[in-house]
Amino acid sequence: MRLPSGIITPTVTPLRDGDLDGEGIAELLEFLRRTGVVAAFPAGSLGLFHLLSLSEHKRLISEFASRLPSGMALLPGVHRGNLEDTVDVARHARDVGAAAVVAVPPFYYELGQEEIADYYVELASAADIPVIIYNIPQMARNRIDPETAASVLSRTPMLAGVKDSSRDLAALQGYVSALPGIPVYEGQDDLLLAARALGAHGGVCGTSNFVDLPQRVWSAGADDAPALQGRLSRLMRLLSRYEFPSAYYYLFQAIVMGRRNPTGYMPRPMRPLDGRSAEALLLDFRSIVPG
């Protein structure tokens, strides 16, 4: 299969009073459809996959699948603490209609590149669904070299793409060069325009949960793109002032759901923004993105 070009949203996990919010998922997907997002990526880093039980993980994917707008691809994260559970979630995603699945490498312990390549080949073979490699060494501990991704491709036709969130543009360019014909996506919003110039297929942009700036950067011409990227980078600097990912979750609630004072929107042990911080965030957000 060929993955779409453009902006993919690594979705927040909508919660209300601590429970999965079906209305929130529906509103989020409608917002993404309306703003031109090409694919939804639930259960990633922004989706706080590591806080989901196995059953919650599957339920989240099912909830997104049942509400997915026509023409939008579903690319759920399936990463778990062991290969068996990861395969289990990937098979579930396949069965509910996912176009491909996204997986970080085995995390916590440091592994060699051959072990990482074996992991992806085994996952793709056992789950029988295309797999997107997710390179995020600052969180997963293990990096995935471009040569390792090329090795995976040489051993299985099920490598669908790469998401690179390493903040290393040389690595992204390495993936583009090592994997001709395989889509490579930039995972950092503030590097989107630079990645486009290096041949990226699109971006996986967390801010697209509540604003269309990434889509506008991606589709803009040479005259307009730098200024739009500048605004997106300002937004990223604003978000970085708050504990990740509470600001993303609050802005989704405030902008998309219209809930200025939401409750239970962050899973334990994470804390929501206090009232003063939320008010300041929204004010600063509106100075960048008037509405």
Architecture blueprint of SSEs:
Blueprint: E1 6-10, E2 15-16, E3 19-20, H1 22-34, E4 39-41, H2 54-67, E5 73-74, H3 83-95, E6 101-103, H4 113-127, E7 131-135, H5 137-140, H6 146-155, E8 159-164, H7 169-178, E9 184-186, H8 192-197, E10 202-204, H9 213-219, H10 225-239, H11 246-256, H12 275-288
Parallel strand pairs: 1-4, 1-10, 4-5, 6-7, 7-8, 8-9, 9-10
Antiparallel strand pairs: 2-3
What does the model show?
The chain is of the alpha/beta class and 291 residues long. The chain has one domain: Aldolase class I (TIM Barrel), CATH 3.20.20. The strands form 2 sheets. Strands 5-4-1-10-9-8-7-6 form an 8-stranded parallel beta sheet. The relative contact order is 0.13. The model has no long low-confidence stretch (mean pLDDT 98).
List descriptors:
2-dehydro-3-deoxy-phosphogluconate aldolase activity, TIM Barrel, 4-hydroxy-tetrahydrodipicolinate synthase activity, 291 residues, Aldolase_TIM, DapA-like, 8-stranded parallel β-sheet, 45% helix
